[in-house]
Amino acid sequence: MADKRAFQSPEFGAINLGQRKTRPMFADEHWQSQPWYEAPREDPAIPEVYTYTGGISFDPGDEVVFHSTSTAKSWQLQIYRDGHEPEMLHEAEIDGVFAPTPKDAYRNGCKWPVSHRFTLPADLRSGFYRVVSSCERPNGTRFVQHHFFVVRPTKKTRRAKILMILPTGTWTAYNDFGGCNHYFGVEGEDGCQPSGVLSLERPWTRGIVWLPAGAPRICADPGPEMGDAPRYPMKEWAFANGFGQYYAAAGWAQFDRHFVVWAEKEGYELDIITQTDLHCRPELIDAYPCLTIIGHDEYWTWEMRQAIERYIEKGGRLARFGANFLWQIRLEDDGKRQVCHKFKAIHKDPVAGTDKAHLLTTAWEDRNVRWPGASTVGVNGAHGMYASWGGFAPNGQKGFTVYRPTHWAFEGTGLHYADIFGDKQRIFAYEVDGLDYTFRHGLPYPVDVEGQPESIEILAMAPAVLAEDEPEGDGFRYYVRGSDHEGLVQCVEGEVTPEGLAKYRYGSGMMVHMTRGKGEVITAATCEWVMGLKRGDPFTQRITRNVLDRFTAG
């Protein structure tokens, strides 16, 4: 059983304070000109410790194997179940053993030696277990590193009606530990290219598993005044504080944890699995009347989608409070390696041009795949994308406009047609999903698209954009610009043309309801929905309760 003593956060106090060192800063340096990734110092004079586990999820009773490297003489391992009321599970003092980190650790794993073994209690509750490795430094400070594993529910330990699926494919895509993620890295002739292949046998970059309160989110808050240069506070904060440059884009700390804390506080029981479990053990979902996915779930395998659609057809219900359903991935080596070549898939993915071309690791709308996300979750990444930050409508509305207030999802809210909810809590921001749509008599309807269910009903929506608008001004400098816009058009249309760019430049984020077979889906397609829960928006909270209560009834 978990330790029920009063919980003391292992992260309390000042941590990870490096030695003060003066260096020149050149006039053309900034966070965008020198992308950074996390890696060990490997300096014997500076104590540190890094740990990963032999898998990302386990059954109760399984042995968890820890792999570590440390320049400290000894270090502390602490494991606790995270949530509304964290519970310490295990603590150990471990002798430090140093092992070098391979140059290709991001692709082929760290291959560090075993540092510890721990057998999980047979009755251990399902959940997210944070792994904290720490050591003391001579100056009196501590070095702290975070990892995690998930404890899956079994028939014996299952206690919830809601099964939460963590979007670990997206977490992996943004994890840059050791040199690369799917966005940038040290590959290529210029040593500045991403990797299409990523290992899960490595630590998570700082910020994916744990964040201090107040770390900036991807949202213009407040919006810029006229003439202000574009700002990207999450990048600036990460650069200034030593966190992963993509900490704000994905992870337990930024999204999923907020939902779990709110749900447990509200009395909802949650069992938890990872996307890897969904891929490898899809039968796990069949015991639950309701599945939920939170935050940023950008990356999926073909097998994951098949499992979800079969589940819904048979009468299951999916509550998706998240967005950016965009890329197909493949999992290899029993889920220990993730493949996604994205915009370069047609040239780099070995399945291109074969009888497995439908598994091409590109956008779901790619002309070689053609399985729109709406088939599974009611909306598409390609018709949504960015809102309320940088050059992406930074002064746009930050909540949803209601169009069908009589739908059961809005019961008890008192919302009217054209009301906006969640704006003060900034729930409509970062990345969103939508559909191509048209208006009839003041109401939005999806435009018919091959592979898109006819039952989709648009309940609420707001505008989004795929490329940054770039008004010029003194010192103006933009980040994403039009790179994603052009890349997506290339994938879907086969070439970049003015017509293609115009077709995909503007989109929307939507809240939709969809039936499929005997089941149904609600998607509130914005990554920032959880902020309505955390920041106490009564409308977002009531809608979430309506969905969860209906989907778990009976």
Key traits:
2 domains, 27% strand, Immunoglobulin-like, 554 residues, 12 helices, five-stranded mixed β-sheet, alpha+beta, nine-stranded mixed β-sheet, N,N-dimethylformamidase beta subunit-like C-terminal domain-containing protein, Rossmann fold
Folded structure, characterized:
The protein has helices at 105-108, 168-174, 233-241, 252-265, 275-280, 302-313, 345-348, 374-377, 483-493, 498-505, 529-534, 538-552; strands spanning 49-53, 57-58, 63-70, 74-81, 87-95, 114-119, 127-136, 142-151, 162-166, 197-199, 270-274, 290-296, 299-301, 317-323, 327-332, 337-339, 380-387, 400-402, 420-421, 430-434, 437-440, 443-446, 457-465, 506-516, 519-524. It folds into 2 domains: 49-154, Immunoglobulin-like (Sandwich); 197-552, Rossmann fold. A 9-stranded mixed sheet has the order 11-9-12-14-25-24-23-18-19, sandwiched between helices. Strands 2-8-7-4-5 form a 5-stranded mixed sheet, with no helix packed on it. Strands 10-16-15-13 form a 4-stranded mixed sheet. The relative contact order is 0.11. A hairpin with a 5-residue loop joins strand 7 (127-136) and strand 8. The protein is built from 12 helices and 25 strands. Pfam families: DMFA2_C (PF20254). It comes from Neorhizobium galegae bv. officinalis.
